[in-house]
């Protein structure tokens, strides 16, 4: 579904953010990307839907090359859902309109169709009663669930999550993770940048560990948690699992 | 001070034969209002476009916006009006220049367009500041949903940015109204010119300029009140100035 092959990315000429990254996500697979801050994990998933350009290598999504200048990027992006660390709901639109905007303007659905789809998804994330509110009137956890519903409204073939729980108060993390676990069990293809190792243990198929722009470890979940091969991954795990 | 106050002067006939001095001031007021509105429409329309250009991911668009803003905001308004009114017709091919000079109401058109362009540089800067004040993630989230650049601006960035810059835009509108007084130097009989004419005909300088002051104050208060209601009606619940 997502093929990343020998990708290099520089910011300017001095700083190389990604170094020869190669990995893939199969259909229905859940891949967790972790690593210390500044390791390039957010940059990597932003390259997948071309929110960040990359200079070398190829990325294909469902067979379509992301880096090819002839690719219709808006169309490609509309098929890949993305959830951000800071939710990024549109503050001037009601919750239901946040879900309808792209359905109508990008997919060309009628307002009634978009509303029906939006209501169904709000119900799925447990926020049906908040449809008429504005984003600032919801808690962080609720906003992030809306953001997930907004991405799902486009019927994506894969979902990207960029640290979806990092900006949340601890008591709100589980309500967001529950929605994501639910999604994973439904067979959604997911690439998730997160430090939530509990989530990784529960639903991930594979774990990718990144450091300084490199993919250091790319292993099946059990292998990664039980006996990581690289010293850097061992160190990272011992730090985040020790408390 | 040996000054002979005469507040009845307003109801005495003015020597230009069109009615009383009050009529003269009121017709000046009308010219001020019409010129300001025309200039403001030009300032808003071109300012918004140039402001957006300065935030686009396109180098030529940025450069054009930069040059436009620096050209129009770094020259005194008086010099700009003189340029358009006295210099431009001489620079054009002879026939065009002649047509411009013989244009009926030339001072009005020059004042409206000249003041409009001068103020548009300021509106452009407000627009740019508003757009740049939004979190980077807003543009990313809209882009990730598959919206095209024009749609990202139309449905997401501009509606929020405009709300943010409404208060400074109100100030710019007030400046536009006051700046039209400079047009008396190119022969536009607006409120300040009318007050000056009244003073020259009647020697009642204090009465004339007291009246002009009160009239300026009144139209500006009307603008402030109207903008207050506009701000309230577009406020987003829970966000910025919203309740």
Shape of chain B: flat
Tell me about the largest β-sheet of chain B.
Answer: none
Total of DSSP H or I helical runs spanning 4+ residues of chain B: 9
What is the terminal-to-terminal distance of chain B?
54 Å
**Low-confidence segments of chain B:** none
> What is Rg of chain B?
22 Å
The dominant shape of chain A is globular
Question: Order of strands side by side in the largest beta sheet of chain A?
Answer: 6-7-8-3-9-10
Describe this structure in words.
The complex is a heterodimer of chains A (243) and B (243). Chain A is an alpha/beta fold and 243 residues long. Chain A has 9 helices and 10 strands. Chain A has helices at 41-48, 73-78, 95-105, 111-124, 140-152, 170-185, 197-203, 221-226, 231-241; strands at 2-11, 15-25, 30-34, 56-61, 64-65, 80-83, 158-162, 190-193, 206-211, 214-220. In chain A, α3 crosses α4, α4 packs across α5 (140-152) and α5 runs parallel beside α6. The longest helix of chain A has 16 residues, at 170-185. Chain B has 243 residues and is mainly α. Chain B is built from 9 helices and no strands. Chain B has helices at 21-53, 59-73, 77-91, 94-102, 106-132, 136-144, 149-179, 191-202, 205-234. The longest helix of chain B is centred in the first third of the chain and has 33 residues, at 21-53. The mean pLDDT of chain B is 93. Chain A binds chain B through residues 46, 49, 51, 74-75, 77-82, 84-86, 88-92, 101-102, 105-107, 133-137, 147, 150-151, 154, and chain B through 135, 137-138, 140-148, 151, 155-156, 159-160, 163, 236-239, 242.
In short:
Chain A has helices at residues 41-48, 73-78, 95-105, 111-124, 140-152, 170-185, 197-203, 221-226, 231-241, and strands at 2-11, 15-25, 30-34, 56-61, 64-65, 80-83, 158-162, 190-193, 206-211, 214-220.
């Amino acid at each position: 579904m997502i093929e990343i092959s020998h990708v290099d990315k520089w910011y300017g000429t001095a700083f190389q953010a990604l170094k020869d990254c190669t990995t893939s996500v199969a259909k229905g697979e859940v891949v967790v990307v972790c690593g210390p801050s500044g390791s390039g994990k957010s940059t990597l998933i932003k390259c997948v839907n071309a929110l960040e350009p990359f200079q070398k290598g190829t990325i294909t999504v469902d067979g379509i090359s992301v880096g090819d200048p002839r690719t219709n990027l808006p169309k490609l992006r509309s098929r890949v859902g993305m959830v951000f660390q800071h939710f990024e709901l549109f503050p001037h639109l009601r919750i239901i309109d946040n879900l309808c905007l792209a359905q109508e303007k990008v997919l060309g659905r009628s307002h009634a169709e978009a509303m029906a789809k939006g209501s169904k998804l709000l119900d799925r994330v447990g926020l049906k009663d908040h449809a008429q509110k504005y984003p600032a009137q919801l808690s962080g956890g609720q906003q992030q669930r809306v953001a997930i519903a907004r991405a799902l409204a486009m019927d994506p073939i894969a979902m990207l999550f960029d640290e979806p729980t990092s900006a949340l108060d601890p008591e709100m993390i589980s309500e967001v993770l529950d929605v994501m676990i639910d999604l994973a069990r439904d067979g959604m293809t997911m690439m998730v940048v997160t430090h939530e190792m509990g989530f990784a243990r529960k639903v991930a198929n594979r774990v990718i560990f990144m450091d300084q722009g490199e993919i250091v470890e790319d292993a099946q979940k059990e292998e990664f948690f039980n006996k990581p091969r690289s010293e850097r991954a061992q160190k990272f795990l011992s730090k985040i699992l020790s408390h | 001070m040996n000054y002979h106050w005469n507040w009845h002067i307003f109801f005495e006939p003015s020597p230009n034969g069109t009615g009383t001095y009050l009529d003269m001031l009121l017709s000046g007021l009308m010219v001020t209002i019409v010129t300001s509105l025309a200039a403001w429409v030009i300032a808003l329309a071109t300012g918004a476009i140039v402001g957006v250009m300065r935030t686009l991911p396109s180098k030529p668009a940025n450069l054009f916006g930069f040059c436009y803003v620096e050209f129009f905001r770094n020259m005194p308004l008086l010099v700009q009006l003189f340029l358009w009114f006295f210099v431009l017709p001489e620079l054009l091919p002879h026939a065009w220049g002649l047509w411009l000079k013989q244009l009926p109401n030339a001072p009005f058109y020059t004042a409206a367009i000249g003041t409009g362009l001068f103020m548009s540089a300021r509106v452009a800067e407000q627009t740019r500041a508003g757009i740049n004040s939004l979190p980077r993630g807003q543009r990313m989230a809209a882009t990730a949903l598959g919206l095209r650049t024009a749609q990202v601006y139309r449905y997401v960035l501009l509606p929020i940015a405009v709300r943010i810059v409404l208060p400074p835009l109100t100030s710019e509108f007030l400046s536009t109204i006051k700046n039209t007084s400079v047009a008396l130097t190119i022969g536009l009989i607006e409120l300040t010119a009318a007050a000056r004419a009244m003073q020259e005909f009647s020697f009642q300088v204090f009465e004339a300029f007291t009246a002009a002051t009160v009239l300026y104050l009144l139209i500006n208060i009307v603008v402030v009140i109207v903008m207050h209601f506009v701000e309230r009606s577009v406020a987003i619940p829970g966000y910025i100035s919203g309740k």
